[in-house]
Amino acid sequence: MAENDKIIDEVVANDYKYGFTTNIEQEFAAVGLSEDTVRFISAKKNEPEWMLEWRLKAYKAWLKMEQPKWQNVHFPNIDFQSIIYYAAQKKKKVINSLDDVDPEIRATYDKLGIPIQEQKLLAGVAVDYVMDSESVITTFRESLKEKGIIFCSISEAIREQPELVKQYLGSVVPQRDNYYAALNSAVFSDGSFVFIPKGVRCPMELSTYFRINAENTGQFERTLIIAEEGSYVSYLEGCTAPMRDENQLHAAVVELVTLDNAEIKYSTVQNWYPGDKEGKGGIYNFVTKRGMCKGKNSKISWTQVETGSAITWKYPSCILKGDNSIGEFYSVAVTNNYQQADTGTKMIHIGKNTKSRIVSKGISAGKSQNSYRGQVQVHKTADNAYNSSQCDSLLIGDKCGAHTFPYLEIKNMTGKVEHEATTSKIGEDLLFYCNQRGLTNEEAVSMIINGYCKEVFKQLPMEFMVEAQKLLSISLEGSVG
Amino acid sequence: MLSIKNLNVGIAEKQILRDFNLEIKPGEIHAIMGPNGTGKSTLASTLAGKEDYEVLSGEVSFNGKNLLEMSADERAREGVFLAFQYPVEIPGVSTTNFMKAAVNAKRKHNGLEPMDAKDFLKLMKEKLALVEMNKEFTSRSINEGFSGGEKKRNEIFQMAMLEPTLCLLDETDSGLDIDALRIVANGVNQLKNKDRSFLIITHYQRLLNYIVPDYVHVMYGGKIVKSGGKELALKLEEQGYDWIKEENSELV
Ligand SMILES: Nc1ncnc2c1ncn2[C@@H]1O[C@H](COP(=O)(O)OP(=O)(O)OP(=O)(O)O)[C@@H](O)[C@H]1O
Ligand SMILES: [Mg+2]
User: Fold this and answer.
1) Contact predicate A315/A289, CB 8 Å
2) Strand pairing class (A401-410; A369-378)
3) Burial of B12 (0-12, 13-18, 19+ CB in 10 A)
4) Which of A267, A293, A448, B86 is the most exposed place for a label (fewest CB within 10 A)?
5) Residue of B nearest to A443 (CA)
6) Which class for A156: exposed (0-12), middle (13-18), buried (19 or more C-beta within 10 A)?
7) Nearest by CB to A438, which of B50, B77, B84?
8) Residue in chain A lying closest to B77 (CA)
9) How is chain B split into domains, by residue range?
10) How far apart are the C-alpha atoms of A450 and A468, rounded to whole Å?
């Protein structure tokens, strides 16, 4: 309890330092994780009894599980009893103008070409922030509501859409799925809920909204997206701007469900703080993302551009249950300095004539390690399944590593599985050749990278594609020369 | 336009160029011949600014500027072009995109706006015709899967695109069939003008039947040991390098 008080003191003192005069009510869960913590979180969120029970079930499962060790990453043991699992109002430090923002971060915003207004939101500049985002959200919500689309926080959905949440939460990623998913299920703070009703095509990318609201979703984020028969939605998560966070461990869970003829396109740009050049600090990003093509002819497509975090492990996957359903995974994962990434996908073919496509582009620079791990399962029932996998690795310099771990489990031989892998290197001769044509090392690397990642980039919504390209160049700045 | 004075260059603790001297005036074509391993590529790479090569002493001025102070990419933007003896492959980057980046880097250097897409395509078409290259090549990844001769032709195409003032050709004729040789030589001849100079490294007199040099130099032991006109190349073709080696036995 003394420890807890100390932390509260610190936070209050910090707020004071940044000019707070009014007392802001802060409420924290006790440090560490126990059944009480779970009850506390659930109570704080005014959750119904069934939700509490759901969380407790996850907590009990988690207690019996062990931290997975099979990934090709290395980090000190995480002390789960030293984490605060709930803070009612995590105040960002409030800044009065963009001039007060860390010049390094501002330079990055400028390089990314982020509009001033948005820069303010990202940096947490106080001016107009609340008013601005609220008016945007209101208009936005109105137009979605007209079409019967529900787009709200998961906490709100638990209170207002209990039947949908009960039916689908944990239906793709069960509480006991894996260690971090269990942890997330027990203590998730918030996240997004999307429901697209039958036959509706969501008229906009669910992105701008999210970006503005990406603040404070916390370290255990929970997202659930349901696309009913014949509906379509494109959802964008994350942000190209560098995201700093005091929480070292992030363990999100994302579940997608498509019914007959529905499609979900889920794009992620992840740029969490990777730690400094020596590899200190930085976020551990352990995510469980899975989509279920439940209905026939449905489609789930994951696109990710991963440049941040000290350690990333995530395997956005598709369960292709409905006949003729399609799963896709397009990924660019960049590691630089001391970053480690172990990422890939799982395509699980269950229905007949199911198809999956994997395009993975790993880029390693500095002393980083980049692993691709892909699994293709073709079950007995999956007649005529088809998978094509393309896994490419690009090495910049000679101190980094790239690893590819493909796993195949084929129990039905009527289909076809194709796997192709390449490794290329940006070495001195290549750079000199480009220099000789007038390009700087940075221009050369960015040109090569954009060529190399084209197939993935073109899956991204237009404005995000441009930002993602710039982001990659920035992430790799100083990696050569 | 290019003046090399007492240039000494080493690589990996080993001295290659020794008190190398050469003057090239605008519009001149110089050919350099010489036995394997005498430092011809070293000369070309040093002029282009490859960092592995260590300049021990000497001066190189290019259009009145100190070339040795510039980085490789700066030299290129200033108008130095090297057609590589062994062009590299660039995965995932088409010749079109590569050239777009290169042409615009140079334009930026000269204070010009990037070229608009239409003009660029027109320029490409014109220069492709110069080396009789098929448009299909420009959409493939640079040099990936190109035959030896195609790679060399692609170098000349790039040279034509970038309109350099100093063109260094390192054995561009090696590995070319007879038709390709004629095409490449033709390309060079069309690019020749009063401001553009060429330094052509070759092992074969044959090329010089098509591209008529103003001077032929023989390199041996890291320096020029003999200079003359076109007839010097003919003599080398007939007699080989033995007489050169004998005359300069003290160099090795
Ligand atoms: N990286 C290196 N390390 C050590 N020695 C090198 C290196 N690069 C070149 N050399 C040596 O420098 C000398 C000159 O090489 P260079 O390539 O300039 O010769 P060249 O005249 O172009 O020969 P060729 O006619 O065969 O192309 C050779 O003896 C070569 O082995
Ligand atoms: Mg050579």
Assistant:
1) yes
2) parallel
3) exposed
4) B86
5) B101
6) middle
7) B77
8) A438
9) 2-88+162-251
10) 10
Tokens, residue A481: 């020369």
Rounded to two decimals, the ipTM of the complex is 0.96
* Among A307, A357, A301, CA closest to A333: A307
The bound ligand whose nearest atom lies closest to the alpha carbon of B15 is 1
Q: Which residue has the tokens 């011949």?
A: B33
User: What is the spatial distance between Cα A226 and Cα B203, in angstroms, rounded to a whole number?
Assistant: 70
A170's torsion region: left (phi>0), alpha (psi -120 to 50) or beta?
A: left
Taking CA atoms, A406 is separated from A315, A339, A421, in Å, by 13, 22, 10
Query: How far is it, in rounded angstroms, from Cα B133 to Cα B136?
Result: 8
Question: Which residue type is seen at A445?
Answer: V
The first and second tokens of residue B25, run together, are 């005036």
Query: What protein residues have CB closer than 5 angstroms to ion ligand 2?
Result: B 40-41, 85
What angle do the packed helices A116-123 and A103-112 form, to 10 degrees? 140
Q: Distances from the Cα of B108 to the Cαs of A134, B77, B95, in angstroms?
A: 43, 9, 20
Give the CA dihedral B157, B158, B162, B168, nearest 10 degrees.
-100
Cα A204 to chain centroid distance, Å, stands at 20
Q: Look up the CATH superfamily of B2-88+162-251.
A: P-loop containing nucleotide triphosphate hydrolases (3.40.50.300)
CA distance B206 to A344: 56
Residue A92: per-residue pLDDT = 46
Query: What is the rounded CA–CA span in Å between residue A99 and residue A110?
Result: 13
Whole-structure pTM value: 0.79
pLDDT range class, residue A114, cuts 50, 70, 90:
low
C-beta separation of A149 from A200 below 8 A: yes
Closest residue of B to A449, CA-based? B92
CB A143 within 8 A of CB A133: no
Three-state secondary-structure class, residue B247: helix
Chain B hits for A438, Cβ within 8 Å: 73, 76-77, 102, 105-106, 109, 162
CB-CB neighbours of B1 under 10 Å: 18
Angle of helix A462-475 versus helix A103-112 axis, rounded to 10 = 130
CA distance B208 to B204: 8
The two three-digit tokens of residue A397, written as one number: 């310099």
Cα–Cα distance measured from residue B235 to residue A359, given in angstroms and rounded to the nearest whole number: 59
From residue B252, how far is each of B45, B149, B245, B246 by CA, in Å?
22, 33, 9, 10
pLDDT digits (tens, 9 = 90+) for A189-239: 888 899 999 999 998 888 644 333 334 445 788 999 999 999 999 998 876
Check pocket membership of B165 for ligand 1, CB cut-off 6 A: no
- Which residues neighbour A478 within 8 Å (Cβ) at sequence distance 6 or greater? none
Count of Cβ atoms closer than 10 Å to residue A96 Cβ = 11
Q: Cα–Cα distance between B56 and A210 in angstroms, integer?
A: 59
CA of B210 to the centre of ligand 2 (A): 21
Alpha carbon separation from A43 to A4, A157, A168, B122 (Å, rounded): 19, 16, 22, 69
Assigned token pair, A415: 């289909």
Choose among B50, B76, B87: nearest Cβ to A438.
B76
Which two structure tokens, joined as six digits, stand for A160?
A: 């207002």
Sign of the CA dihedral with A94 first, then A98, A100, and A103 last: positive
The pLDDT, as a whole number, for residue A207 is 67
Number of C-beta neighbours around residue B237 at 10 A? 14
Residue B222 Cβ inside 6 Å of ligand 1? The answer reads no
Q: Would you place residue A16 in the very low, low, confident or very high pLDDT band (cuts 50, 70, 90)? A: very low
One-letter amino acid identity for A150? I
Please give the Cα distance from A451 to A469 (Å, whole number).
10
Average pLDDT rounded to a whole number, residues A17-36: 53
pLDDT confidence bin for B191, thresholds 50/70/90:
very high
Distance, in Å, from the CA atom of A455 to the CA atom of A433, rounded to the nearest integer, reads 25
